Each structure stands twice: as structure tokens, then as C-alpha cells.
Amino acid sequence: MRKRSPAYESSTGNVFADLGFAHPDAELAKAQLIFQIVELVRGRGLTQTAAAQVLGLPQPKVSQLLRGQMAGFSTDRLIRLLNRLDQDVEIVVGTKASARRPARVRVVRRGAALAARRRKDAIDSE
């Protein structure tokens, strides 16, 4: 007897759109900002208590943030937290590339791509 493959739908690439959120691009941008904060806190080896001091938040809020809980964190607040972690945040407005797709909101970590490129160049020059 042959097993049936489970039914599935292809993702749009945005889980919030797939789940029917009212503003999926904004929710994805918040999630990406939180991811950046988590990576910075972990990369610095900060405890939740130390991160709370740097971010100016109570430790329970840091715990929520590090677990990816978005409730209570506006995009503006997340940007301020990134600034407290000594990160520049740039907002770039541009004309969308195609008439077929809707305009979008996205978060890009410039420094990470630049650092990866520098590592690759260093390895290639050896």
C-alpha cells in the first residue's frame, strides 16, 4: 500500500503572510529586527541581566525579546534597542522594482555581508 504525501501549500517566503496577518511585511520586519538584536546580544556573550542594563529594559522584557516574543515591541522601540547596541539603523525609501509585486518592507544587515566578504577575500588571498 502506497503512502499519500501530505497536502501542503508553497510558502510566499513570509510566514506572516502565509498565516494571514493583516500587515505581514511589518511583522516580518519586526521579527528580523529582533533576530538582529538576539544575534548581537549572543555575539557579545551578554547575560540577560547585562543585556537589560545595555538595553535599558527590565530583565523579564529581555527574556521575552530573546525568545522572539514580539508583543510589546514596536518597530520604533526595536530600532532604539539596536542603537543602544551601537548599531546604526538606516531606513531607505525607494521605488519598487516591479509593477507586478506589491511594495515591501525588509531588514538587511549590511555589516554581516561586508564582514563575510572580507573573510572570503582574506581566505582567497592566502
Description:
The protein has 126 residues and is mostly helical. The chain contains six helices and no strands. It has helices at 15-18, 24-43, 48-55, 59-66, 75-84, 110-125. Helix 2 packs parallel to helix 5 (75-84) and helix 3 packs across helix 4 (59-66). The longest helix has 20 residues, at 24-43. It is globular, with a radius of gyration of 19 Å. The model has no long low-confidence stretch (mean pLDDT 85).
What would the keywords be for this entry?
mainly alpha; 52% helix; 126 residues
Short description:
This protein is mainly alpha-helical and 126 residues long. Helix content is 52%, strand content 0%.
Fold blueprint:
Blueprint: H1 15-18, H2 24-43, H3 48-55, H4 59-66, H5 75-84, H6 110-125
Helix pairs in contact: 2-5, 3-4
